[in-house]
From TrEMBL, chains A, B:
Domain FAD-binding PCMH-type: 50-231
Similarity comment: family membership: Belongs to the FAD-binding oxidoreductase/transferase type 4 family.
PANTHER family: BLL6224 PROTEIN, D-2-HYDROXYGLUTARATE DEHYDROGENASE, MITOCHONDRIAL
Sorted UniProt keywords: FAD, Flavoprotein
Name of protein: FAD-binding oxidoreductase
Species: Reyranella aquatilis
């Protein structure tokens, strides 16, 4: 938890024995976890950095039970922390230490209710594990384009509540863009049935977008209608040594047309980042020995099978890369000749997080700016951080097509966690000041939760915070729904 | 105005001479229109079916003036009807006859502030005419994919406020999907600066999606950051005679992959619809003499120029159409061999509205259902309407990729407007009951405005209407912002 975070005021009505019995009457014995050991994974975030409390973990089996539980809590002023996979990075799903209410886990609601391959949609419950949904789509020759590190354990309800990002946003948009309809239990227990499989519906305010990204503070997402896309049939993956970040955005800008709008991913990595992975993760290999500070992992994905003798993604990419070398943006490049080669490129990208943990303590900022400002941000951001701590070791990387940089640093060699922590507030302030001066976002995809509560209130305008608070107070006047997250009320 | 619409209760504070002078002090003489003749186009909808009132039309030159005007109205309880191009079909931008406040037109705020081709975005003022924005994008080798009938006079502020649709939604989404950031003047006059050119920003509630589709009832959109796409370089347009609507959705379902996700448009037309156009619009030609009741206008658009000798969009489409004929879905088809031929196909589609006006009185419903339910909707909907008035002449058409059918009817031959009007409530109820039973939308792209106010409150759940009202009351407690539209408060 950041040093700056003082616990916000949250409702402290207790779960009395009588209320516990009422909860049991709704969800049954198997829907209640009241012992400390059983509660532990639900009150601690996955990194172990936030250790919260809850009187009881409630695990309803269906939306009617969720509704009854929420109504009971509403009538008694008991605070609720909605939770799906509890894999968030900002503590949005983890209770505050001062929390005396319940954790409401949607994990038992994990059914795929319907798949409509012709209509390119599927209807699912909030507790479905993301990877299961990817696999369900694939088994119908369709693609559900939400991919992120935690996909084996995160759940779609949490993904939507935090408007998750990942490596396919460039092409398909954030989680909110993958949704046609939602079912949500409101803070008073009412069930809002917005579970419509509609691509167009201009009948009043768009409520679904309000619940997505609200991190469970306005209601509990219980079901969703998700959009699907055709499955990939022809994929070209390449590893590019490039001149600099400015070259990266120019390459991407031209790749859209050259690939027929089929750019799937475009991941920027600094040499320090790839070196860190190669140093720490056994079995990884440098795809390209090149004398440059910057690399790009570029993937084009087409839903049309490559026909015998016809031009496929790889041939189009080859032509494109030759043009980009000619233009001086690409120094050297290799297109994967097999799935194994492509996999190796992706393993490097996906191993950044484990490699950084092996490297010891560090700092990381999940920021975004408009795509055109990425080079300026990186240059000025590095200077700002190095001015404060010259021996810190930056390894920037990012989803460049989203203007989203994971602006990351290993601590100086030999510096322990506590010493590094002393520099953290100054570096955080410098980075976030720069982001704000460039009209960027201090949390591109990870959300606010507990961790960035104070950063948000520092950087957002009074008018914007007031508008958010007005909405929160109107929809949750008792402040029982995930209180003390996103906003101080 | 529909017979069922009773005027809602709206604030009636008058614009006194003193307030008029305060308005003049803010916007100057050229920002005020107080004479009846000058006001006329601002208080009447473009079809002339709604004739409203306003004390004065106020035309601010910039957001600061908008803010001051709104603050003045807020402090004095004066109702405001925000207006851009006033081309909406539901009366959302046109004042009620009982309106005693102002019309606030954004028409003078019509500057393109910035175009960023590398970052694929542009920042514009709300009063920019849509077609100007299409042309601006094209002049930078970019594409702004909002295309609709009124594009020569509608303005982007209105397009976003109604979340406009059009013929490119299938690929690019509704207007709300084309937006990265907004600037909005709130009902109390505060300026919300959400003008961020960010593809990712998970910092609290997504306010922009709340204002889009709210039809000006929650605030006035004054600027927007719009997304751009690569300009088209290789286009294949075809006219297909098809088996039936079920074939249409199956053809589309397979076209996504075959075109490499490059389906730009897919418009379904009934034979009665195309016959009506050919009969009424001079110069139009039937692209295909085929014995079928249904046609499809299919367009694939790639951003990659066709290389000499390589397979382009037309070759891919030819192969696809052969497969679809083999499968019995396509009866006959022709791919346009020139821009003129493609243009002729589009003229037929675009001439449906003028042709229907030439044909005399009619009825039309802008509905959507999930794509897979389109065939069932058409079959049952036709039966329901013909059961009520057997001699009515249906000519259904629609954006099939959006599940959006313009479910349209010419009146029986020789029947006058007044007689047809007597059947209208029963047919409307039958169509909308069917839509609702299929979990569809009674207004897919045209919105609610005045016209569908009572339909919305009839068909939406109490919980959904209450949630919308809660938001409206919280953000606009004095109910001055476009009162009596979308919702009765």
């Amino acid at each position: 938890m950041p040093d700056t975070a003082l616990p916000p005021t949250i409702p402290t009505a207790p779960v009395t024995p009588a209320i516990l019995e009422s909860l049991r009457a709704i969800v049954g014995d198997k829907g209640l976890i009241a012992d400390d050991q059983g509660k532990q994974p639900f009150v601690t975030d996955w990194r172990g950095s936030i250790v919260g409390n809850a009187a009881v973990v409630v695990r309803p089996a269906n939306v009617e039970e969720v509704s009854k539980v929420v109504k009971l809590c509403h009538d008694n002023g008991i605070a609720i922390v909605p939770q799906a996979g509890n894999t968030g990075l900002m503590g949005g799903a983890t209770p505050w230490p001062s929390h005396t209410g319940i954790v409401l886990s949607v994990g038992r609601m994990n059914k795929v209710l319907n798949v409509d391959p012709v209509g390119y949609s599927m209807t699912v419950e909030a507790g479905c594990v993301l990877q299961t949904l990817q696999e369900t789509a694939a088994s119908h020759d369709r693609f559900f384009p939400l991919f992120l590190g935690a996909q084996g354990s995160c759940m779609i309800g949490g993904n939507l509540s935090t408007n998750a990002g990942g490596v396919q946003v460039l092409r398909y948009g954030n989680a909110r863009n993958l949704v046609m309809g939602l079912e949500v239990v409101l803070p008073n227990g009412d069930i809002w049935n917005g579970l419509r499989a509609l691509k167009k519906d201009n009948t009043g305010y768009d409520l679904k977008h309000l619940f997505m990204g609200a991190e469970g503070t306005l209601g509990i997402i219980t079901k969703a209608v998700l959009k699907l896309w055709p499955a990939a049939k022809d994929v070209a993956t390449a590893w590019l040594a490039i001149r600099d970040p400015q070259a990266a955005i120019e390459i991407l800008s031209e790749a859209h047309g050259a690939s027929e709008d089929n750019v799937g991913s475009c991941e920027l990595m600094s040499r320090t980042c790839t070196d860190m992975v190669l140093r720490n993760i056994p079995g990884t290999q440098d795809p390209l020995k090149a004398d440059t500070e910057w690399f790009l992992l570029l993937e084009w994905t087409s839903a049309r099978p490559k026909a015998e003798g016809a031009e496929g993604m790889a041939e189009k990419m080859e032509q494109f890369l030759a043009d980009q070398m000619e233009a001086g943006r690409v120094i050297d490049a290799v297109i994967a000749q097999s799935e194994a080669q492509a996999r190796n490129m992706w393993v490097i990208r996906e191993s950044v997080a484990p490699a950084s943990r092996a490297e010891g303590p560090g700092l990381s900022y999940d920021i975004s700016v408009s795509i055109s400002k990425v080079p300026e941000f990186i240059e000025r951001g590095l200077k700002a951080a190095l001015d404060i701590l010259p021996s810190i070791r930056p390894y920037p990387l990012g989803h460049i097509g989203d203007g989203n940089i994971h602006f990351s640093f290993m601590g100086p060699k030999g510096m322990d966690r506590e010493t590094l922590k002393q520099y953290s507030p100054a570096i955080t302030r410098a980075v976030n000041d720069l982001v704000t001066s460039l009209d960027g976002s201090i949390s591109a995809e990870h959300g606010i939760g507990i961790d960035k509560l104070d950063e948000l209130s520092h950087y957002r305008s009074r008018i914007e915070l007031d508008t958010m608070r007005t909405i929160k107070r109107a929809l949750d006047p008792k402040n029982i729904m995930n209180p003390g997250k996103v906003l101080r009320i």
